[in-house]
Automatic annotation (TrEMBL):
Belongs to the cytochrome c oxidase subunit 3 family. CDD domains: Ubiquinol_oxidase_III. It comes from Litorivivens lipolytica. This is Cytochrome bo(3) ubiquinol oxidase subunit 3. It comes from the Bacteria. Cytochrome bo(3) ubiquinol terminal oxidase is the component of the aerobic respiratory chain of E.coli that predominates when cells are grown at high aeration. Has proton pump activity across the membrane in addition to electron transfer, pumping 2 protons/electron. Keywords: Cell membrane, Electron transport, Membrane, Oxidoreductase, Transmembrane, Transmembrane helix, Transport. It is a multi-pass membrane protein.
Length: 204
């Protein structure tokens, strides 16, 4: 029995000894790189199909730039508030971290609400994804980004529950770092969408 316990102890020690301290963060970076490839393919597809209107409406005719600019502000400010949450985390202030995370979540939800309103309006005027290759590419690119924001919000709410229950334990700190990378990544992608799809599309 004692030999079995000793063997298990040795195995556990070896497993811990070979576990990379930053393995989770490195793995998450690899995931973000794969996500970059997905969005690169979607941007390329949109670029190829950006003139394929099939006689239908163009983005320049239907885009509401002030509304999109407001939505962009929601997402950019959410990145700033997430930065404040990380500062509070580094100071060991759980309550402050949770407050700034909640504000980030509200801004992210506002972004999604405006995006859903825009999609509803486009569908109402007959510019759905089935209307032309252009609108198919538009809905796929912008919708994929919106799906990522939705996943980020679910993750954020889950983290709030974990913080309330367990506090700023090392595992939660690591999860906050990963979500921070994910959230800022979505910001960068949206800047590309806003510039390439909306601004350039409005000038077409």
């Amino acid at each position: 029995m004692s030999q079995s316990v000793a063997a298990n102890t040795n195995l556990n020690f070896i497993a811990r000894d070979h576990h990379a301290p930053n393995g989770t963060l490195f793995g998450f970076w690899l995931y973000l790189m794969s996500d970059c490839l997905i969005f690169a393919a979607l941007f390329a597809t949109y670029g190829v199909l950006s003139q394929s209107y099939a006689g239908g409406p163009t983005g320049a005719e239907l885009f509401d730039l002030p509304l999109v600019a407001l939505n962009t502000a929601f997402l950019l400010f959410s990145s700033i508030t997430y930065g404040f949450a990380m500062l509070q985390m580094q100071q060991g202030k759980r309550q402050g971290t949770m407050i700034w995370l909640a504000i980030t979540g509200l801004l992210g939800a506002a972004f999604l609400a405006v995006e859903l309103y825009e999609f509803s309006h486009l569908l109402h005027v007959g510019a759905g994804p089935q209307r032309s290759a252009y609108w198919s590419a538009f809905f796929t690119l912008v919708g994929t980004h919106g799906l990522h924001v939705t996943i980020g919000l679910i993750w954020l709410v889950t983290l709030l529950v974990q913080l309330k229950k367990h506090g700023l334990i090392p595992e939660n700190r690591r999860r906050l770092f990963c979500l921070s990378m994910f959230w800022h990544f979505l910001d960068v992608i949206w800047i590309g969408v806003f510039t390439f799809v909306y601004l350039m599309g409005s000038m077409a």
